[in-house]
Write a structure and sequence with these properties.
The chain is an all-alpha fold. Helices cover 83% and strands 0% of the residues.
């Protein structure tokens, strides 16, 4: 019975950390793009913004998943490592965004919230996926 209880406590704790990381991903994308992201996606139905946000959330989710899957024997160490690697992934995604913005013409944030489809959003989403994959590989 204690194994079940330990599993439940672990599930709730890791889910809480995961949800906080996902919230961090949302806030990061909101900060990187002009205007309120909630309005862009849910009211304006902006597919560019939705794709970019989705790539960040899936990337952070993959990092949290990999960290949990390869967690250390000690519960608290695993929990902290999930938070640390997830935060690192968010920071690296933001850094890649800024680097891509520097190396390409125009303002990337404005392209992401442009109502017309823009190929730069796909490149930015791929960058998020690549960063997440690199962090996941570094964890395991």
């Amino acid at each position: 019975m204690s194994d079940v209880l330990d599993g439940l406590v672990g599930s709730v704790a890791f889910t809480a950390v995961g949800v906080l990381l996902l919230l961090g991903g949302f806030l990061l994308v909101d900060w990187l793009t002009p205007g309120p992201l909630r309005h862009q996606i849910w009211s304006e139905r902006n597919r560019n913004a939705a794709l970019f946000l989705a790539s960040a959330l899936v990337g952070v989710g993959a990092i949290a998943f990999t960290s949990i899957l390869t967690t250390y024997a000690e519960f608290w160490v695993g929990l902290v490592s999930t938070a640390v690697y997830g935060t690192l992934g968010l920071l690296l995604m933001a850094g890649a965004f800024w680097l891509l913005d520097l190396l390409t013409p125009g303002k990337l944030g404005e392209m992401i919230v442009d109502p017309e489809p823009h190929p730069a959003v796909w490149v930015s989403a791929a960058s998020n996926a690549a960063i997440a994959a690199i962090v996941c590989a570094a964890i395991s």
